[in-house]
Specification:
By secondary structure, the chain is mostly helical. It is built from ten helices and no strands.
C-alpha cells in the first residue's frame, strides 16, 4: 500500500504571539509546504496536485505561499532540493567507517534504500514525479545523479575514467530499479533490490571493472 507522504513531520508555528524571527517563520512555512507538496503528489501526482492541495495540507495561507514561491513548480523544486538534502544527510554517516569497497558500498546502499523507504513522499517526488515537472526538474535530477556517481567513486576509492563511468552506470541502474517500487509504494520490493545489487558490485570489483584503490 502506498504511503500518504513524508513521515518526518515539519515543525508547526506556536499558537498566538511568539518571539520567532521572520526568517524563522519563513523557514517553518517552507518546510511545511515542501512536506505538503511531497504528500499531495504521493496521492495525486504532480499534474493532479494544485497549489490549493498543498495549502490545505500545510495549513499555510496562500499569501504566505506566494511570499516564498512563485508557482507550484517553484515549490516543487524546493521540495526536490529538500529530498536531496535529506538523502545526503543520511548517506554522510554511511560513508564513514571501516571495510573494503564492497562493504562500504553495501552499507551506503542499504542506507539509501532505507532513506527512500522512510520518506516515501519525498522518494516519489525525487524519483517519479520529477519527470512530470518538466525540463528544469529533469536537469536538476540529472545533476543529482552525477553528484551521487561522484560520491560513489569517492566512497569506493576508485579512480580512472572507466571506473568513474562504471559508477555512473551503477547509479543510473539503481535509479531505474528502485523507481517502480517507489511508484507502487512497495517498500518490501524496494529493500529487496539491495542484496542483488550489492552482489553485482562485488562481481564488478572482482572483474576489475571498478579499479578499487585504498581510500586516503
Amino acid at each position: 500500500m502506498q504511503s500518504s507522504g513524508p513521515r518526518s513531520t515539519p515543525r508547526r508555528l506556536p499558537r498566538g504571539r511568539h518571539a520567532l524571527s521572520r526568517s524563522e517563520v519563513e523557514r517553518v512555512h517552507r518546510d511545511r509546504l515542501c512536506a505538503a507538496m511531497a504528500a499531495a503528489m504521493a496521492e495525486k501526482g504532480y499534474v493532479g496536485t494544485s497549489v490549493e492541495d498543498v495549502l490545505k495540507r500545510a495549513r499555510v495561507s496562500r499569501q504566505n505561499f506566494y511570499g516564498l514561491f512563485s508557482s507550484k513548480l517553484d515549490c516543487f523544486m524546493a521540495a526536490f532540493d529538500k529530498a536531496g538534502e535529506l538523502l545526503r544527510r543520511r548517506l554522510e554517516g554511511a560513508a564513514e567507517g571501516e571495510g573494503d569497497p564492497a562493504a562500504r558500498f553495501e552499507r551506503a546502499f542499504t542506507t539509501y534504500l532505507e532513506a527512500l523507504a522512510s520518506e516515501p513522499g519525498y522518494a516519489r517526488l525525487f524519483l517519479v514525479e520529477v519527470y512530470a515537472a518538466g525540463p528544469e526538474a529533469i536537469r536538476r535530477r540529472s545533476a543529482m545523479q552525477r553528484d551521487l556517481a561522484g560520491a560513489l567513486a569517492g566512497l569506493m576509492g576508485v579512480t580512472g575514467e572507466t571506473a568513474e563511468f562504471a559508477c555512473q552506470i551503477v547509479v543510473s541502474a539503481v535509479s531505474t530499479m528502485v523507481t517502480p517500487a517507489v511508484a507502487m509504494g512497495d517498500m518490501e520490493a524496494l529493500r529487496a533490490v539491495g542484496p542483488p545489487v550489492a552482489e553485482h558490485v562485488r562481481l564488478l570489483l572482482r572483474a576489475g571493472v571498478l579499479d578499487a584503490r585504498p581510500a586516503v
